[in-house]
Amino acid sequence: MAVTRRIPGLLVTEHEIAVPLDHSAPGGEQITVFAREVADPDGLDRPYLVYLQGGPGFEGPRPTRRPPSPGWLDRALADFRVLMLDQRGTGRSTPVGPATLVGRTPAEQAAYLTYLRADAIVADAEALRAHLGSAPWSVLGQSFGGFCALAYLSQAPEGLREALFTGGLPPIGRHPDEIYRATYARVLERNRRYYARYPEDRDRFLAAVAAAPVLASGDRLSPARLRQAGNLLGRSDGPELLHAILELDPTSPAFAHDAESIGFARNPIYAVLHESCYADGHATEWSAQRTMPPEYADDPALLTGEHVYPWMFEELGALRPFAEAAELLAAHPWPRLYDAAVLGGNEVPAAAAVYVEDLYVESAYSLETAAQVRGLRTWVTSEYEHNALRADGAAVLDHLLDLVRGRR
């Protein structure tokens, strides 16, 4: 049963449906999928815009009419009712964690986790659309949400009125090794820029490594784990956020807290399934580990980016319960996510913001994909980083809607 409530300036309706874990076996294990519908009080007759969250492994935003609500929401509500989907495994959808997987063998855990990719999220969205009795709807995909939107165009284009992508046009068919080599090249350049801006932070990084503080979780902060703070450098405010951590005394509680907040404890799916997002017909075999450039062996202060490594499942207490399943998933021959023939004949209006220096989704590959999707219009810009939808959401969404509707 849907639950509707008023919060300041908004009308919010909560929807829960049961769906099969495996959509090809509708009589099998069932899970819950949750979505929160957000509308202006006078906008209940507007069409739906489904927001597909970045990740993997993060739930949809919790909206308000004031920060930290997403900045694009007001612009979206002028045209739409917005459906914030908690992708399977996250938020109020049946969550994934040690408790979910208890009693399953590592092989059974790995099998469960294979049903959490973009193709299953698309099938959930279509089940939700049928439940709501909605006409084809619009989707807005941020980062990994864009991977889901491309799978939607491949798998169920009849369910879409239009598709909008922000920093989330994935490669089609490329091997994960190619993708990670490209992202490492971006990260090495960001290292150069960061240490040029904050040269004193190289010594601070090494001092923090030498201190090896114990974090609140009981984990000890290793050099490899602190290197992962470089993941912040793909955001417009990332260098300043990283500097704010490194300038702290590494023996202080503040440093221990902030260093741990970079981690994966809250959203383990992000670590477990990250490489599989790029596995369009390939096994990943710990691609980021295998393709790490030799510079990292020579320079202990070099930062990494959005990369996942097998050592994390031993060193991070929150990830240890997933260690054996993660090894099995690294060897898993993942099926194709995208249908090039369907995309080549696409008839759904689509537009994508491609950020030239995107640290996480390589822009050259995004443009390669754009050329394979019939009718998709691109906005290629160096004005924004990957977090543009968060940093200047109303302007980004407005630009995409103008493109997809032929106003630009």
UniProtKB/TrEMBL annotation:
Organism: Pseudonocardia abyssalis
The UniProt record lists the keyword Secreted: no
Family: Belongs to the peptidase S33 family.
Residue ranges of every copy of the AB hydrolase-1 domain listed in the record: 49-194
GO molecular function: hydrolase activity
Official protein name in the record: Alpha/beta fold hydrolase
Pfam family, one: Abhydrolase_1
Keywords: Hydrolase
Source taxon at top rank: Bacteria
The UniProt record lists the keyword Hydrolase: yes
